[in-house]
Structure formats: structure tokens, C-alpha cells
């Protein structure tokens, strides 16, 4: 499970980093962290560090990317992590997959609300994906959120309505579900999630 990482001035200096020791973390602080294969995210100014994903997780992400890329209209673009979604100074999330307006492709980080965020659950990120990220995506206006569970071979589809997510569908195993947002695509977990 991803754990909040406290800022200890001695640890930061030993790592060659000098960051403020008081107050919440900001995206500016995040930009000074090392590129070491770990996932660094901010939620309301709290730094959360997650380990690199496992092969089964990456396989599911790859299959979903192919599916989304194939159906993506020209005004949208599909991205694979790591890419920062930074809607404010104290929030920086890295969805496993995200769909944004094409104009975002020229920016360093995506700042406007996403059309879709997709998280593939893994043992180290399950709690964060189901709680903190869900709340963050809803609060910042992400239009749709898919929660993919390779262990259950399922995909849960949520859409934002009046500031909260409502489940509009769930598909498991060999079932199929066609969703319309952010563009029409048919989900078939058996072909997407089996390694």
C-alpha cells in the first residue's frame, strides 16, 4: 500500500534535495524530486510514493491503451503514465491511463479536467485508487473514472454527475460493455486482463 512520506530535512539534504520543511508539498517541490522509478503524487499537499508496477499491471495498462487509442477521436488524446495531472498547486496525480483534450499534448503537465482517468488496481495502490484518487478525480472535475481489477477480471465505469461519481456499469470476465464516454468503446475484460 502506498504510504504518505513525511519530509525529513536530513533525508532530503542527504538526497541532494533542499525543500521547505513546513507546510504542504506543492507541484514545485515535486518537480525537484529524483527520477528514480518511483511514482510521486500529491493529494492536498501530502506526498505519496508508490513502487514501480508489476508486469501483470503493465500488461493490463498496455491492452487498455491499445483499445482506447484505436477508438480515440481526433480532438482527444490517450496518454499512459507517467504523466502528471496537476489541477492545482497541491495536487499531482498520475493515472495509469488518461484521456484529455488534444490541446493538452503540448503542455508539460495536464492541468484542465480530464475526460477519463483509468486506474489498474495493484496490491500497493488499491486503497489509494479506490479512495484518495477517486475523491481527487471527482473534486477536480474528471468526467469519467474506470477502476480496473485484474484479480477479479473486472472494470467498473464511473461518470461524474453533480460533483460525485455514479457507477454506470461494471463488466466482468467474458461479459462485454459498450460505454459512450469519453467516446464509444467496448470493454471485454477477458481479452484485456488475462496475461
UniProtKB/TrEMBL annotation:
Record CDD domains:
DUF820-like (cd06260)
Q: Which domain of life is it from?
A: Bacteria
Domain Putative restriction endonuclease: from-to ranges = 28-186
What this protein is called in its record is Putative restriction endonuclease domain-containing protein
Q: Which organism is it from?
A: Actinocatenispora thailandica
